Amino acid sequence: MGRARAAPLVHRFFVPPETLRADRVTLTGPQARQIATVLRLRTGDEIALVADGAEAIVSLEAVRPTSVSAVVRERGFTSAEPTVALTLALPVLRGDHDEEVVEAVTQLGASRIVPFTSARSVVRSLSEAKRRRWERIAREAAETARRGRVPTIDPARIWTDLFSYLPAPVLVAWEGERRLRLRDALPATARAISLVIGPEGGIADDEIAVARERGATTVSLGGRNLRSETAAIAAVALVMDGVG
Q1: DSSP letter, residue 20
Q2: Domain-by-domain residue ranges, the chain?
Q3: Which of 24, 131, 151, 161 has the highest CB neighbour count under 10 A?
Q4: Is the peptide bond before 16 cis (omega within 30 degrees of 0)?
């Protein structure tokens, strides 16, 4: 079983792994409504179903707003997943700026996003409704990028607890770091890496001390002062280009 054929215009849907075990599949709920009433696909049209890196090209047999049935035509694996699992610790930002970051870093290849608040955070919490919205955005972005997995969105953490949830090595992008650039800190070989981006107000010195005590390394993104959302997207792109 190799890489499944999937033309650029084939719509992709993430499904539970057990869905792909059968030769015939049924989709219900929002996915059925999207296929039938939004995309207006018809019997005979093909879509791609994806779960945990595996994908199947299926041909639609019956299309209704409440239920869509299809038969599997081809199985394979996606080729768009990075070789390293990147965890992004992302501050909760004002407005919809963090949602833009979730969309972009998902397309770039982030595997997990851990929201957090810290001493200089402008926004002090992440509601469950907003976290679920992040999940929806990540799913849609992963489908757009033809990825094989949807990044997980953790519950929000506070700075003092954050590093207990991040796999090593942990790199903290900090405006006070002048010597070590992110690209130079990337490990030559790694199966996982964590990247921490500071909030709008920056990271306090005592918080940097906590990070270093927990084994994190501070890195620079260059000599310019970047907005948090810009820093997050740029840093993830650098990591993916370097080791992904």
Answers
A1: G
A2: 12-77, 85-243
A3: 151
A4: no
pLDDT bin (cut points 50, 70, 90) of residue 89 is very high
Q: Per DSSP, what are the bridge partners of residue 54?
A: 51, 77
**Total residues found in the chain within this entry:** 244
Long-range CB pairs of 82-85 (<8 Å, 24+ gap) are 82/109, 82/111, 82/240, 82/244, 83/243, 83/244, 84/190, 84/191, 84/192, 84/193, 84/239, 84/243, 84/244, 85/111, 85/112, 85/167, 85/191, 85/192, 85/193
- Please name which of 132, 89, 128 lies closest in space to residue 110, comparing C-alpha atoms: 89
231 is written with which tokens?
């820093």
Indicate the fold that domain 12-77 takes in CATH. Ribosomal Protein L25; Chain P (2.40.240)
CA proximity to 228, closest of 185, 195, 184, 187: 195
Which residue in this structure is represented by tokens 């407005």? Answer: 95
Mean pLDDT to the nearest integer, 99-122: 95
Question: What number is the average pLDDT over the span 23-50?
Answer: 95
pTM, to two decimals: 0.85
Using the Cα atoms of residue 160, residue 164, residue 166 and residue 167 in order, give the sign of their dihedral.
Answer: positive
Give residue 6's pLDDT: 46
Distance CA 89, CA 5 (A): 34
Q: Which residue has the tokens 């018809």?
A: 42
Name the one residue in this structure whose structure tokens are 């820093």: 231
Domain covering 85-243: architecture:
3-Layer(aba) Sandwich (3.40)
87: its two tokens: 């965890």
Q: Retrieve residue 73's tokens.
A: 């035509």
